[in-house]
């Protein structure tokens, strides 16, 4: 075995073949690996026992002395054969080889007599089925057709095309089909070329268009297209998806047949044949689909690995093909069955083995298969096991502590405990797959672990491994225990006062409530010890009205959720109805039914309301405009009548305007009511202040006073007598007694005169 691979693998695998009846058949199989290697064969999954008819040669190949499609006992040598090789490390299986008997049927399409005018196109066809595909040749007048003549085109599917017919093309034609099984002749057909070449115009017409084909990569496709017309049409090809056909491996046979050699998957598509009248846009089309299949092949092979006991082994096998291949895994030649610790993912392309042990040591194979073919690849799993490792931990026990906590305890292994550096506790939900397992490390002197953050009412499985620097022990026995049930959480409670005798309790349901659980509601007056309740409510209820309450006292409302494990913590709220009663006295309740009826306004009412509102806005604008004009007029009249020293026009302040405006209004009131308004009262109503802030307030007051004047007074003011001028105020003349004339005004200072 020196220089040979230690892995058990195939060097030569059996391939698909077509066998000749009553002839010997050899299926080849060659394996490499560590000897001794035993090779056996299977047909359709059944072991082949050496016999006179079939036996295994010394090199591992299978020899069939006389291949028979049907034997006397009804059995057949046709079928799927595979080769199995086994040594000390495991067993591998080869790809399946499909073996069929060579056959040939009778012709199911024979050539037909044809009469065609000179210059036209003649087409003969014959079809026959056989394995392998028969080769069809044509004879004219019992002699092979001269293929050197460019006007004669022979297509692989048994078609003969003759273009530009001449009188010498007339004759008797037949075809000959040949393969390793037989040779057969078709019936004869006569071709008659009549008359001379016609000059009458004829539209282009496609006699035969391309047919749908399904082939395998590296084969050759011939898409037929034969057209007639006068003048002779030009045949062109395109793809329906608009992609270019390309030039590599592309050839035109005869006047318009498309041949594609060395097919690839990219050649798949719908091909369109067009017959075009020269120099015009007149054309006729026909189309056919080409499907190119590719047998399965590996993009990534699985790799042999070595892993310690208790760890995880992962094999990856990625294959491609058209159609996409199906992947199957074998373990020592047998279909691999998944379990808690053997999982297949990613469309079977990833094999994961969790917590491996010595029983998992084997050869694992990946089989990729589709309708175009199959292939296989293998890899070996070696489980590392060191001598002197600890035995499994003993006496594993698990006890439930609470709804979220379990305590696990164990005893040290019985053997090889000196090198232990720690323990690993393996934890997972009993219902979860093994890949959801997680671990917690524990020191070597600790023999118990409190596992927290678990889910209530859930079963968990636990096992322990002891670790040394050289590896881990085997797993201990698995123990399963469930956490306790948990009462629901506190619900969120809100209290809303409906009226003087009713409150509404609303809440959000607890997410931990079960199907047959609910709520309990209690309430009481705070000075009493006895609760009213419980009021039992279903789990889907989220509100409850408490009625017939006393508005003069404070109430305590308590809500809790319950389930089969008991009552949860309660949420308490306090509520008083006294404020509601007081508001009701100050603001008597409305007649809701009446208001509701009043609110049901018609469309006509809405329109009328809009018109009224717009009218009011217009009147307000006009009122403000004329009020401003009236204020200016009153300022002029009042200045003339006041007995106080006059202030020059340029020194009149805005505040003065306010004063004069008020004086005019007060004089009018005096005339009407018989009351006197002296200057002291004016000063009391409008106190003088030198601050700029009060001056600004005086301006605001002037606007508001002027806006309220009598409409008749405003209408008498001619608009063209006034203008708006901003003047710089002159220094006011001082009073001989030391006071300023501005003292008569509530405010003094510069003013803008209108």
TrEMBL record:
InterPro entries per the UniProt record, alphabetical: FN3_dom, FN3_sf, Ig-like_dom, Ig-like_dom_sf, Ig-like_fold, Ig_I-set, Ig_sub, Ig_sub2
Residues in coiled coil: none
Topology class, membrane: Single-pass membrane protein
Fibronectin type-III domain residues: 392-486, 487-583
Chief location category: membrane
Annotated GO CC locations: membrane
GO biological process: cell-cell adhesion
Biased composition (Polar residues): 645-654, 689-707
Positions of the UniProt region annotated as Disordered: 645-754
PROSITE patterns (alphabetical): FN3, IG_LIKE
SUPFAM superfamilies: Fibronectin type III, Immunoglobulin
TM region(s), chain numbering: 606-626
Keyword set, alphabetical order: Disulfide bond, Glycoprotein, Immunoglobulin domain, Membrane, Repeat, Signal, Transmembrane, Transmembrane helix
Family in the record: Belongs to the immunoglobulin superfamily. DCC family.
Protein name: Immunoglobulin superfamily DCC subclass member 3
